[in-house]
């Protein structure tokens, strides 16, 4: 049974609502990458192409670039990296029966992995995902909090199995880093849909309401919130949707490039 399509709760005059319903295929692409890895820039470019294509065509392709910290000790500390993202990648390896992790690695809908720079295989996996029905219904309402450094998020769901979590990711486009050391020394690396904030919440019942804190340096004109439901037992992604944050402008400045 589908959810009612009415407005859930207008958290502000600029609240945005996004939905995914049975019969609407989608693809969540999680790229595990690093600025310290010389094999990763081609994968970053492929991800940027996917982001641009989704923006142009409106296809429900949700891209997230998780920068892992496993390369940080080898000469260049990636400013976007997090040990939590490295742990997330290891969890996928366990779920997929793999004995190792690597970069660049792309995971599609939590169940298929490909080398992130292999455009053909990645596009084929995305097309396959778009042909499949979501396993749950998801509706998202989001607005910037009164402090302008947080998001007030409300999600309603239907059809989720026990052990489902709601993942909320704030991603930012049009970022660049001048790399001073390591395998990419001397290069300016450009990134899209970098995960700047990520959290998971257990789904109990048919609604989740949370506050998501924004990164101190983020340009909301280039940012979006991606929400997706995931079965923690299998790591399959059950449904996903997104909301742009561009209506609310810039928070805490934001910077075009950084490096040392």
Describe the structure.
- By secondary structure, the protein is an alpha+beta fold.
- The chain has one domain (16-248): Glutaredoxin (3-Layer(aba) Sandwich), CATH 3.40.30.
- Helices cover 17% and strands 37% of the residues.
- It contains three helices and 15 strands.
- It has helices at 40-57, 83-95, 119-130; strands at 16-20, 27-33, 61-67, 105-108, 112-115, 137-144, 150-158, 164-172, 175-178, 188-191, 194-202, 207-213, 223-231, 237-244, 257-259.
- A four-stranded antiparallel sheet has the order 1-6-7-12, with no helix packed on it. It has a four-stranded mixed sheet with strand order 3-2-4-5, with helices on both faces. Strands 11-8-13-14 form a four-stranded antiparallel sheet, with no helix packed on it.
- Strand 2, helix 1 (40-57) and strand 3 form a beta-alpha-beta unit.
- The longest helix has 18 residues, at 40-57.
- The protein is globular.
- Residues 1-23 and 250-258 have low confidence and may be disordered.
């Amino acid at each position: 049974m589908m959810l009612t399509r009415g407005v859930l709760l207008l958290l502000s005059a600029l609240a945005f609502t996004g939905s995914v319903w049975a019969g609407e295929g989608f693809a969540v692409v999680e790229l595990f990458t690093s600025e310290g890895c010389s094999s990763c820039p081609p994968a970053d470019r492929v991800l940027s192409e996917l982001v641009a294509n989704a923006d142009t065509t409106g296809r429900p392709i949700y891209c997230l670039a998780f920068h892992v910290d496993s390369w940080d000790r080898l000469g260049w500390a990636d400013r976007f990296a997090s040990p939590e993202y490295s742990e997330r990648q290891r969890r996928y390896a366990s779920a997929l029966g793999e004995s190792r992790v690597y970069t660049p690695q792309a995971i599609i809908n939590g169940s298929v992995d490909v080398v992130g720079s292999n455009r053909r295989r990645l596009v084929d996996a995305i097309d396959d995902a778009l042909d499949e029905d979501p396993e749950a219904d998801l509706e998202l309402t989001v607005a910037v909090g009164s402090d302008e450094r947080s998001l007030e998020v409300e999600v309603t769901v239907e059809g989720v199995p026990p052990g489902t979590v709601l993942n909320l990711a704030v991603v930012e486009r049009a970022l660049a880093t001048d790399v001073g050391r390591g395998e990419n020394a001397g290069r300016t690396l450009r990134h899209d849909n970098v995960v700047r904030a990520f959290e998971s919440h257990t789904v109990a019942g048919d609604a989740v309401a949370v506050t998501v804190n924004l990164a101190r340096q983020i340009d909301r004109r280039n940012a979006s919130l991606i929400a997706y439901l995931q079965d923690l037992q299998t790591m399959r992604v059950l449904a996903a949707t997104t909301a742009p944050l561009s209506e609310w402008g810039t928070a805490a400045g934001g910077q075009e490039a950084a490096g040392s």
